[in-house]
Amino acid sequence: MLIVNCYVITGVGTSGLGAKLGSKVGGAVGVAPPRHRLEPETDPVKLTTFLCGGNISREGGKDPELRPESEYPDWLWTLRLDRRAPPLDELDPDTWEYWMRLHKISRKRQLTTLRIKHQYHRF
Known about the structure:
two-stranded antiparallel sheet, 123 residues
Protein backbone atom coordinates (compact mmCIF):
# COMPACT_ATOMS: atom_id res chain seq x y z
CA MET A 1 0.00 0.00 0.00
CA LEU A 2 1.33 3.44 -0.97
CA ILE A 3 -0.04 6.80 0.16
CA VAL A 4 0.25 9.52 -2.49
CA ASN A 5 -1.34 12.95 -2.08
CA CYS A 6 -3.72 11.66 0.61
CA TYR A 7 -5.02 8.87 -1.66
CA VAL A 8 -4.42 5.22 -0.84
CA ILE A 9 -3.18 3.16 -3.78
CA THR A 10 -3.17 -0.60 -3.39
CA GLY A 11 -1.68 -3.20 -5.65
CA VAL A 12 1.50 -1.30 -6.34
CA GLY A 13 4.24 -3.68 -7.40
CA THR A 14 1.97 -6.73 -7.60
CA SER A 15 3.77 -8.11 -10.66
CA GLY A 16 6.65 -9.18 -8.46
CA LEU A 17 9.19 -7.81 -10.91
CA GLY A 18 10.13 -4.67 -8.97
CA ALA A 19 11.54 -4.34 -5.49
CA LYS A 20 9.14 -4.15 -2.59
CA LEU A 21 8.70 -0.82 -0.82
CA GLY A 22 11.16 -0.36 2.01
CA SER A 23 13.34 -3.25 0.85
CA LYS A 24 17.03 -2.81 0.26
CA VAL A 25 18.13 -2.53 -3.35
CA GLY A 26 21.86 -2.79 -3.85
CA GLY A 27 22.50 -2.11 -0.18
CA ALA A 28 20.52 1.15 -0.13
CA VAL A 29 17.15 1.88 1.39
CA GLY A 30 14.40 2.77 -1.12
CA VAL A 31 13.69 6.20 0.43
CA ALA A 32 15.85 9.10 -0.76
CA PRO A 33 17.21 11.53 1.83
CA PRO A 34 15.70 15.02 1.81
CA ARG A 35 17.49 17.57 -0.35
CA HIS A 36 19.03 20.64 1.21
CA ARG A 37 17.93 23.81 -0.54
CA LEU A 38 20.19 26.84 -0.41
CA GLU A 39 18.64 30.20 0.27
CA PRO A 40 19.41 32.89 -2.32
CA GLU A 41 21.81 35.62 -1.29
CA THR A 42 20.16 38.99 -0.67
CA ASP A 43 23.11 41.13 0.45
CA PRO A 44 23.81 43.59 -2.44
CA VAL A 45 27.45 44.13 -1.42
CA LYS A 46 28.19 40.41 -1.46
CA LEU A 47 26.32 39.96 -4.77
CA THR A 48 28.47 42.59 -6.48
CA THR A 49 31.84 41.48 -5.09
CA PHE A 50 31.65 37.65 -4.96
CA LEU A 51 30.48 34.85 -7.24
CA CYS A 52 27.76 33.51 -4.96
CA GLY A 53 27.49 29.73 -5.24
CA GLY A 54 30.85 29.43 -6.99
CA ASN A 55 32.55 27.56 -4.14
CA ILE A 56 32.88 23.95 -5.26
CA SER A 57 34.66 22.54 -2.21
CA ARG A 58 32.53 20.50 0.16
CA GLU A 59 34.13 21.62 3.39
CA GLY A 60 34.81 25.24 4.16
CA GLY A 61 36.13 27.57 1.55
CA LYS A 62 34.51 30.75 0.34
CA ASP A 63 33.09 32.08 -2.88
CA PRO A 64 35.62 33.54 -5.36
CA GLU A 65 35.86 37.30 -5.73
CA LEU A 66 34.73 38.95 -8.95
CA ARG A 67 37.43 40.65 -10.99
CA PRO A 68 37.18 43.70 -13.28
CA GLU A 69 35.73 43.04 -16.75
CA SER A 70 39.13 43.67 -18.37
CA GLU A 71 40.60 40.54 -16.74
CA TYR A 72 38.07 38.19 -18.37
CA PRO A 73 38.41 36.94 -21.99
CA ASP A 74 36.44 38.72 -24.72
CA TRP A 75 34.52 35.61 -25.80
CA LEU A 76 32.86 35.45 -22.37
CA TRP A 77 30.76 38.53 -23.16
CA THR A 78 29.53 37.11 -26.48
CA LEU A 79 28.01 33.90 -25.07
CA ARG A 80 24.31 33.38 -25.72
CA LEU A 81 22.33 33.43 -22.48
CA ASP A 82 19.08 32.36 -24.11
CA ARG A 83 18.38 28.65 -23.55
CA ARG A 84 16.23 28.33 -26.66
CA ALA A 85 17.80 27.10 -29.87
CA PRO A 86 19.20 29.90 -32.04
CA PRO A 87 17.08 30.98 -34.99
CA LEU A 88 17.94 29.36 -38.30
CA ASP A 89 19.13 32.62 -39.85
CA GLU A 90 21.82 32.98 -37.14
CA LEU A 91 23.40 29.63 -38.04
CA ASP A 92 25.99 29.10 -40.77
CA PRO A 93 24.60 26.90 -43.62
CA ASP A 94 27.92 25.05 -43.85
CA THR A 95 27.60 23.52 -40.39
CA TRP A 96 26.08 20.31 -39.12
CA GLU A 97 23.98 22.22 -36.55
CA TYR A 98 22.28 24.21 -39.32
CA TRP A 99 21.16 21.12 -41.21
CA MET A 100 20.01 19.26 -38.11
CA ARG A 101 17.99 22.29 -37.04
CA LEU A 102 16.50 22.57 -40.55
CA HIS A 103 15.60 18.86 -40.48
CA LYS A 104 13.95 19.25 -37.06
CA ILE A 105 11.90 22.24 -38.23
CA SER A 106 10.77 20.50 -41.42
CA ARG A 107 9.93 17.29 -39.55
CA LYS A 108 7.84 19.23 -37.03
CA ARG A 109 6.00 20.95 -39.87
CA GLN A 110 5.42 17.57 -41.58
CA LEU A 111 3.99 15.98 -38.44
CA THR A 112 1.72 18.94 -37.79
CA THR A 113 0.39 18.75 -41.35
CA LEU A 114 -0.26 15.01 -41.03
CA ARG A 115 -2.00 15.46 -37.68
CA ILE A 116 -4.31 18.13 -39.09
CA LYS A 117 -4.93 16.12 -42.26
CA HIS A 118 -6.00 12.98 -40.36
CA GLN A 119 -7.74 14.77 -37.50
CA TYR A 120 -11.27 14.33 -38.90
CA HIS A 121 -10.82 10.81 -40.28
CA ARG A 122 -10.79 9.00 -36.97
CA PHE A 123 -13.47 6.40 -36.41
